[in-house]
Amino acid sequence: MSLLLPFPSQFSSTTLSTTAFATTVRFTPFASLTPPCSTPKPHAKKVLVPIGFGTEEMEAVILIHVLRRAGAHVTVASVEPHLQVQAAAGTKLVADISISACSDQIFDLVALPGGMPGSARLRDCDVLRKITCKQAEENRLYGAICAAPAVTLLPWGLLKKKKITCHPAFYDKLPTFWAVKSNIQVSKGLTTSRGPGTSYQFALSLAEQLFGESVAKEIAELLLMRTDDDNATKKEFNKIDWSVGHHAPSVLIPIAHGSEEIEVVTIVDILRRAKANVIVASVEKTLEVVASQGTKIVADISISNVQESAHDLIILPGGTAGVQKLSKSRILKKLLKEQNSAGRIYGAVCSSLAILHKQGLLKDKRATAHPSVSDKLEDESCNGARVVIDGKLITSEGLATVTDFALAIVRKLFGNGRVRSVAEGLVFEYPKN
Q1: Helix residue ranges, H only, 260-329
Q2: Cα separations (Å) of 218 from 214, 225, 235?
Q3: pLDDT band at residue 28, thresholds of 50, 70 and 90?
Q4: Is-same-fold flag (46-222; 234-426)?
Q5: Alpha-carbon distance 322 to 329, whole Å?
Q6: Cα–Cα distance between 211 and 25 in angstroms, integer?
Q7: DSSP β-ladder status, 234-237 and 190-193
Q8: What's the fold here for domain 234-426?
Q9: Where residue 4 falls among pLDDT bands split at 50, 70, 90?
Q10: Which UniProt keywords apply (predicted)?
């Protein structure tokens, strides 16, 4: 079976990037797109996803999201002294438990996200080493992505006589005879992959090994994954310049309980890699929110603390329950109204278009949305496009298409050179046209 993330990359060399600003990581008319994570069944497959300081957030969150959607009981365990962990691009995720509480548990799968120094933090955790080595010895599934195969598994001796791949920046550390440059490699119970841009392939391969091909195909369709023969990418109308001067673009991303975590984290990660100043603001009473598939993310700030601020760009994430919460925020409504009046940029993904529609911010605009709500759009000429730009409005179908969405923003704000550099770091093949 071949499940393809849009444009998986074969770049030969690149560097991983980390970013400065720290983000501390569930409209009524529309059908539910992301049902909340249900209580695990008694015999649900058990999956361990460890995280540490500098873990790549896209890789961790996509793994968690996809495997929970597939029906796995995913435990997110911190290898740090505290449950709250700052990831590579500054997103702060909150683990379910400490890794020490997992030492006596048996897992059907242990999946290691990459990132630096996250992969080194995982490597230096003796409890995790013992869990993963036992996993391999007892012929249960284990996997690693990005830097983790070379930085974490190799020193543990878990790559012997196995074909493996990893992030291009670490490829020279792998045993030459066994190293391959494929985006995904399955070898004797070990699955490896290359980077954030191949995370969906990695997670879906693991889902297929746990639950079968039909489940993996269903999840791929739900996530709006694209096949290699799908040419629908980006459409732009009323083309204008988005440059914001000599300062780093200021981007506001409001979140709530039920926001779609893969959308939030992907947009934040990619825009921070491009050196935008991204602020994640909670519309809840607390900074910590529980996203649609149970991932706990801590925002940088409360929405009330940015109500007098001007931002170059405001982006609304999807997630049905999250959109309902965002739509009730008076401060966010005020900010969006001011954004439009001042001629600044704004955007929405998935079902969050409902908020813009309700405020009249889609009038005479072309847009795209999740297929389940696209019939709400007045102009159907853009149906099926991953990303649509109309003047200073940008929209996306959501979920897996948000990588294209975030890279489209990078291109508009920073140009072709920056977007290709960011895409290369992600191991994501940016379209040539």
Answers
A1: 261-273, 320-327
A2: 6, 10, 27
A3: very low
A4: yes
A5: 11
A6: 28
A7: unpaired
A8: Rossmann fold (3.40.50)
A9: very low
A10: Repeat
Cis omega (within 30 of 0) for bond into 254: no
CA–CA separation, 264 and 61 (whole Å): 10
CA pair distance 433, 431, nearest whole angstrom: 5
Q: Where are the domains of the chain?
A: 46-222, 234-426
Model confidence pLDDT, tens digit, residues 143-194: 999 999 999 999 999 999 999 999 999 999 998 889 999 999 999 999 999 9
Task: Identify the CA nearest to 74 among candidates 44, 104, 54.
Answer: 44
CB 159 within 8 A of CB 178: yes
SS3 374: helix
So which residues are the catalytic ones? 263, 350, 370
> Is 149:168 a contact under the CB 8 Å cutoff?
no
Strands (E), 18-157: 46-51, 73-78, 84-86, 92-94, 97-98, 109-112, 141-145
One DSSP character per residue, 117-146 reads THHHHHHT-HHHHHHHHHHHHTT-EEEEET
Task: Please tell me the distance from the alpha carbon of residue 70 to that of residue 67, in angstroms, as a whole number.
Answer: 5
Distance between CA atoms of residues 212 and 347, nearest Å: 37
Query: Does residue 78 contact residue 227 with C-beta atoms inside 8 Å?
Result: no
The CATH architecture that domain 46-222 belongs to is: 3-Layer(aba) Sandwich (3.40)
User: What mean pLDDT is predicted for residues 94-114?
Assistant: 98
